[in-house]
Write a structure and sequence with these properties.
The protein has 414 residues and is an alpha/beta fold. Helices cover 33% and strands 22% of the residues. The chain has 14 helices and 17 strands. Helix 10 crosses helix 11.
Length: 414
């Protein structure tokens, strides 16, 4: 595919290294709203820059995971640059791509920086440049180890991200100190993407609320505060009738001292409904339950229905093994990325993709109590009244996460 139109800010992102005013910078930082065109222009600019100044050199392109990096950056980028005369030889098993252009050939390694242990993956390699996509989602240890690899003369660093909490280390160490770091800083809004229609912009404005709206739509670095799901509306999200569903799933947040919460979800009329729940607090009842007792509660909750899967808190190893041992249900470990999961639930609620039976009193109670920890200095919910909230988050991240984050809006000609 080829791009028909770029904005002035996108063009600067791609060509800053050619501009005498900016070419002396060691790095570029682009932050701002979602769908503002910063990833597209930065990835293309990084590729053209690397193959204009270097030959037989090594570079790195980093994301939170290699899977998300391929989906959000690499696949669209390769499709685009092939139309501009680049030759690409991808070695998927080795997470690298050899790219040739105008008689030059360079190697691009793909890295995922999902946790503290990821820093070891990038040690030892010598790089002529690096592109870090969604850098705020990576641990500081990984980013700093990656930057230390850029020791070749003329190397440059390319950062891209959506805003996060203003206490985030990257905001304080790089964005607020971009002059000190000799970095060009460009802030994007949705208006900087000429390929984004007004209809799509309005859609994104409807999707988010609270801090997520200010970050992803307005592009601001703001702290989360207050109730986490202010969009929950009893009139819209609670139902009372009995329904027959076409598909059933169970989600579970497992606790021993803390409560165990399980929800039975059914798909009906294009919407997932929480039909029943099991909520057991050993503190309240004065007695702890075993894995087998919780499994019996799962059987009672299901009540003979055919269950597609049981999604369980990944830390509940003994309960997961208990379910597997009985051999009746398929069990999977939940995605426990808290903030991303909360954002997905917020979107599902705003799009009316979730409803809750009036008998599910514990999850309805928690909706009114689940709030951000304003003293934490980062996006962290208060660890109280969050057990049904957690099992709902596991469900949404597994069942309703249709890679909405990977939406790639550009104007193309084929």
């Amino acid at each position: 595919m080829s791009i028909e139109l770029f904005s002035a800010k996108q063009l600067l992102t791609m060509n800053w290294w050619l501009n005498r005013k900016y070419s002396g910078y060691d790095a570029i930082i682009c932050d701002g709203a979602v769908r503002s065109g910063k990833t597209l222009s930065m990835s293309l600019g990084f590729m053209v820059w690397a193959n204009s100044f270097f030959n037989n050199s090594a570079f790195a392109i980093c994301g939170k995971t290699v899977t998300s990096l391929r989906r959000n950056v690499i696949n669209p980028l390769l499709s685009m640059i092939k139309d501009y005369g680049f030759t690409c030889e991808e070695k998927v098993s080795k997470n690298l791509i050899d790219i040739s252009f105008n008689g030059r050939k360079n190697r691009f390694y793909l890295f995922g920086g999902k946790d503290e242990g990821s820093a070891a993956l990038i040690q030892g390699v010598t790089l002529s440049g690096i592109f870090l996509d969604e850098v705020v989602l990576m641990p500081r240890s990984f980013v700093e180890q990656a930057l230390a690899r850029c020791s070749v003369s003329g190397s440059k660093i390319w950062f891209n991200c959506n805003p996060d909490n203003p206490s985030h280390w990257f905001y304080n160490e790089w964005i607020k100190k971009h002059d000190e770091k000799n970095a060009l800083y460009l802030h994007f809004t949705m208006n900087d993407n000429p390929s984004l229609s007004e209809k799509v912009k309005k859609r994104y404005e409807r999707l988010y609320s609270g801090a997520f709206y200010e970050r992803f739509v307005l592009g601001k670095w703001v702290a989360s505060d207050g109730i986490i799901y202010p969009m929950f509306d009893r009139k819209k999200h609670i139902f009372s009738e009995n329904i027959e569903c076409s598909k059933y799933v169970v989600s579970c947040d497992y606790g021993t001292v803390n409560p165990t919460s399980m929800g039975l979800w059914g798909f009906y009329g294009g919407t997932w409904h929480r039909l029943k729940e099991y909520y057991y607090s050993s503190k309240k009842e004065g007695c702890m339950r075993t894995d087998e007792e919780h499994y019996n509660a799962l059987e009672n909750l299901v009540d003979g229905k055919e269950i597609a899967k049981v999604i369980v808190d990944p830390s509940a190893a003994s309960f997961i093994e208990c379910i597997r041992r009985h051999g009746k249900f398929k069990v999977v470990k939940a995605d426990n990325d808290v903030v991303t999961g909360i954002r997905r639930v917020s979107t599902a609620l705003k799009e009316n993709k979730l409803k809750f039976h009036e008998s599910c009193i514990d999850i309805i109670r928690e909706f009114n109590l689940y709030h951000w920890n304003e003293r934490a200095g980062e996006d962290v919910p208060v660890k109280e009244n969050d057990h049904a909230m957690d099992d709902m988050r596991y469900f949404v991240s597994d069942i309703l996460n249709n890679n909405r984050e990977s939406f790639f809006a550009v104007s193309v000609s084929r």
